[in-house]
Give the backbone structure.
Amino acid sequence: LVLLKRSSFDVLNTERSLVYAATNEERLGRANHRSNQLNPAAKKRFESAIEHLQKVPFDGTEKSLQALTETADAQRELHHFGASEENFRKALKYAPNSSEIRDKISYLLITEHRKWESIPYLDYLLRKKKINVVQLMNLGRLEGVSDNRKILRDLLKSHNSNEICKVGLARIAYQQNEYKKTLQLCDEVLSAHPGQIEALTLQGLALH
């Protein structure tokens, strides 16, 4: 049993190295060649990582959940979105309070342009105050986003990128036809960040 546990641990560490290397290699490939096609070397590494990960037996433990989510990560990078989503959702069933898994699902859904479906996951992250700047921007771009003004205002007090929160508030105000409030918030953002594209867009919409 000890040997089996040690073997699973070694496999998991091996796959982490493979996923990390493949992800960096893929990013480099995209940066250097400006192409959406998967870098061949990265593709091979992701496939190898999946092969190693699948050797970790799934039993609902933290270790096996890690292996499952990292398998899904690699599958996403290979554009195997169906398999990736299935594994993320399986992991979420065993870890229903996981913000990290919800983050991964929302990212996958947005990647697939299924933005409406990502709302509950982003909303959960916002309510738990586990949301980051990129996620706030994604939430601000979504139509039909729930009214989270109080939480956004709380984040304004502590978040380093306050203008992102104000853009989210402006988006909510615009959706509720509060055009004067939308313009006020956009002006506050643009006074500090004149080129903020979301605020400029909302400002233009509110003026028309």
Remarks:
- DSSP finds eleven helices and no strands in the chain.
